[in-house]
Specification:
Blueprint (H helix, E strand, L loop, with lengths): L1 H31 L7 H16 L3
Length: 58
């Protein structure tokens, strides 16, 4: 049982690290290209969209 928990934790940690690195790369790219950051309204709209996609809500 312990081995199972260690393996699943390692898989989750790898997924988190990969996702985090991709987010950092995207932010760096946007900064280097001088994109304007989204407004608070835009951020809320896209976060709501992301949650709906993650939870498969229509």
């Amino acid at each position: 049982m312990t081995i199972f928990l260690v393996v699943t934790t390692a898989i989750c940690a790898f997924g988190w690290a990969t996702n985090h690195a991709a987010a950092i790369a995207l932010v760096k790219y946007m900064h280097d290209k001088k994109y304007t950051p989204p407004t608070e309204k835009e951020t809320k709209t896209y976060v709501a969209y992301a949650w709906k996609e993650l939870l498969h809500i229509k």
